[in-house]
Write a structure and sequence with these properties.
83% of the residues lie in helices and 0% in strands. It starts with a helix and ends with a helix. By secondary structure, it is mostly helical.
Length: 419
């Protein structure tokens, strides 16, 4: 571990790694707790309950990805605090609008939605607007804290999210409230801590100088984010989560539950570092662009991620089929097989995702949008075809499609970084 730390300090830089390590600290606790309670949850809930969670989580994640109209990712890279404050207020307005629209859609189209999801979500759709609102608030305020480099506060809220989410899932599971316990825990895992971040934001002096005319000007200045980045985020999230919805609705609810559990187990150690690197990269890369060092900085980041991620993922892929059966029981053996297939996909995604923000920093939102639209079409089409022709191999086809898409994405990002 010490050699990895020394390597990151020398390659990426002291400040960069220090900021990453602060975020990783909170995320590490959250991920460890999430993994630790899984053997308990698999005893309290059935694979079918996890299938409902997979569908709910997929829909929620897709909605939250665009709830802020993508103004949140512009907050860390804006040039002054006044503009950043206005961007955050626009993001909060987007969250409110999204939650209201989702509520209206559920009221008007409840029978159709229930039928499309194979009646799996019918009794739980009312939780979606709540999840969208809380998760959207947290996402918006989190980017403000990152701009302010208050990484320790973000880290503490992630710990709070993990504890509250796990406690709710275990507690309601013991009371036999299934699958609502899983769904409520999911909401708190993504939305808890928003109030604490909000308190810090509302102390900002620049907030006092905000005017409606300023909000309009900032909206026009950053309109490319809702115009292009929103659709990009929707396509990106859809390419990952729409196949899960398709699998849950067309193949079997349990299969979607297995897939979600496999993704959670595999993404936990990767999210530990990858998410933190991506957020700190977003802050640091803007300065590197002005210095003409963005390509070199990005390549160093990529090299670091390769060194960190390859060995753990290879080990996970080899050991998963045996370990999953031993820890969770034979009825969950399918999860171990899925993990082995997902390893190549998750490795290239782990490398690509943190640096994908470089397309926004360099003003290539249209390219990012085109890539994500391609990914959406390619991955959803692959799963749809497999659900009809290779129903026993849908999850495997989904994994292969992820490998191809992120491989292409990585090459395009490098191409637009120049020389």
């Amino acid at each position: 571990m010490k050699s990895v730390i020394n390597y990151l300090f020398s390659i990426v830089g002291n400040r960069f790694f220090r900021n990453v390590s602060i975020l990783v600290g909170g995320t590490a606790f959250a991920q460890i707790l999430a993994i630790a309670v899984l053997p308990i949850l698999t005893k309290l809930y059935t694979p079918e309950d996890f299938g409902v969670l997979a569908l709910f989580g997929a829909v929620l994640t897709i909605l939250v990805s665009v709830a802020c109209f993508r103004f949140e990712i512009a907050i860390p890279i804006s040039k002054d605090d006044k503009t950043a404050v206005e961007l955050l207020l626009l993001a909060l307005l987007g969250v409110l609008i999204t939650a209201v629209v989702v509520s209206l859609v559920i009221i008007v189209l409840f029978p159709q939605i229930n039928r499309l999801t194979n009646s799996s979500l019918g009794n739980y759709l009312w939780l979606l607007p709540v999840g969208v609102f809380l998760s959207g608030l947290y996402s918006a305020f989190q980017y403000w804290m990152i701009r302010e480099r208050k990484f320790s506060i973000v880290s503490k809220t992630r710990i709070a999210q993990s504890i509250s989410g796990a406690s709710i899932q275990v507690g309601l599971g013991l009371l036999g409230v299934a699958p609502v316990g899983l769904l409520m825990g999911q909401i708190f895992q993504s939305g808890a801590g928003a109030l604490r971040l909000a308190v810090s934001f509302f102390r900002c002096r620049s907030l006092r100088n905000v005017k409606l005319s300023g909000l309009k000007n900032t909206f026009k200045q950053y309109e490319r984010f809702p115009k292009f980045s929103t659709w990009e985020a929707l396509a990106n999230s859809g390419s990952i989560h729409l196949p899960i919805i398709i699998i849950g609705a067309s193949v079997a609810g349990a299969e979607a539950g297995f897939l979600m559990l496999a993704m959670r187990l595999l993404s936990a150690p990767l999210g530990l570092i990858g998410g933190a690197v991506g957020q700190v990269y977003l802050v640091e890369a803007a300065g590197k662009l002005h210095e003409g060092e963005l390509r070199r900085f990005t390549l160093r980041t990529v090299y670091s991620l390769i060194k960190i991620g390859t060995l753990p993922l290879v080990i996970a892929g080899l050991a998963a089929p045996l370990l999953v059966s031993l820890v969770f029981g034979e009825e969950w053996a399918r999860v171990g097989v899925m993990i082995s297939w997902m390893v190549p996909w998750f490795l290239i995604q782990f490398i690509t995702s943190p640096i994908s923000m470089s397309l926004h920093i360099t003003g290539n939102q249209k390219t990012a949008l085109a890539l994500q639209l391609f990914g959406l079409f390619f991955r959803v089409s692959a799963v749809l075809i497999a659900s009809f022709c290779l129903s026993d191999w849908v999850a495997e086809v989904y994994s292969i499609s992820g490998l191809f898409f992120y491989g292409i994405y990585f090459l395009v990002v490098l191409r637009f970084l120049g020389k």
